[in-house]
Amino acid sequence: MRSARDASLLLVGSVPLDSADAVFRRCGETLGPHLAALPDGEVGDRSIWVVCQAYRVFHEHPDLETVARPSDPDPDKAWIPKGFSEGIWSFRTRPGVDRVDFDDLRYASWARDSYEEFLRLRDAGEISEDLRFQVSLPTPAGGLSFFFHDPGELRRHLPPYEDAMLREVERIASAIPAEDLAIQWDVCWEVLEIDGAPLPWALPDPWERYLDSLPRLNGAVPEGALLGHHLCYADLGHQHYIEPTDLATCVRMANATVAASPRSVDWIHMPVPRDRDDDAFFAPLGDLDVGDTRIFLGLIHHGDGEAGSRRRLEVAKRHLDGFGLATECGFGRRAPETLDALLDLHLTLVR
């Protein structure tokens, strides 16, 4: 099986196709030789990232009340927020409930179903036998914090929700052999907190809480599986929650992620906004201290094509050697008709 060091490209996770089968075929055929692992595209309920937790876990939980939810006349879109401030799901604990436990977050079930498709295609020779199956999971803070707007409730629910997420990792690892598996933690809420985003329901001490969580999250991923972290400034409607000043926060978090991990971290992905092709943005890469961990820079943007992506690439090379390439975030919210051009752009940049 390939390691992250063998890969020149990373697929962050989401892909705008209707099924895992379609994602495996299209992305495996086009980018397979340049990847270490292949995600299932986060299709269906996962297409809007952690909104699946609001829709399928919290909204259906008997101990929780839905305070607010999206509204759309189209019933197929009635669960999807329109932006960061409009129609966001929110929940609170029902009166008289002392503790809310979370049994099934569904990620393991989704992973098992997609892995069956992965195996079928790999056994048929349609996926390279060197590729692993990639599962992208939100950190517990990311899966929960967008939807509980009372800080007291958020603090109260984080420990049982983290327990539930770690059980999802255990279930995934029991169903998928380590040599076939890559797990990526999607780290968004913590990036926003640490970088000072105005999150009205954030808890204090974000850096300390992040450091505290790292050994548990990384330690849950079995040895032999690949482990990655995707650092993210959010991507709803192709908009960041805040714009990064530079890569300093990502570098600080990357260094801490590797230093605090009880096992190797195989890759860390960092986003690069489309309008940042200046040395000041990339200069903090000089402070990276992550050993053999592979860095993927998310500087590929369909919006300005090869010219803009190559311009960012050339500036990045002045500050870091030997990194891989990716888009800034998953591209599952893109129009499907742009997918072929975007995949071709990946290939153009690594040739």
What do you see in this structure?
- This protein is an alpha/beta fold and 351 residues long.
- The protein has helices at residues 20-31, 51-58, 107-123, 140-144, 151-175, 189-194, 206-219, 248-259, 279-282, 305-317, 339-350, and strands at 37-39, 64-68, 90-93, 132-138, 181-187, 226-231, 267-271, 294-300, 324-327.
- The protein starts with 19 loop residues before the first helix and ends with a helix.
- The model has no long low-confidence stretch (mean pLDDT 94).
Q: H/E order of the elements?
A: HEHEEHEHHEHHEHEHEHEH
Q: Might you state the CATH topology name?
A: TIM Barrel
Strand order of the largest sheet: 1-4-5-6-7-8-9
Range of strand content: 5-15%
Under the CATH scheme, which class?
Answer: Alpha Beta
Number of helices: 11
Second-tier CATH architecture: Alpha-Beta Barrel
Helix content: 25-40%
Strands, total number:
9
Largest sheet: 7 strands, parallel
Unreliable parts: none
Overall pLDDT, averaged? 94
Specify the structural class. alpha/beta
State the domain count: 1
Shape: globular
As a whole number of angstroms, the C-alpha radius of gyration is: 19 Å
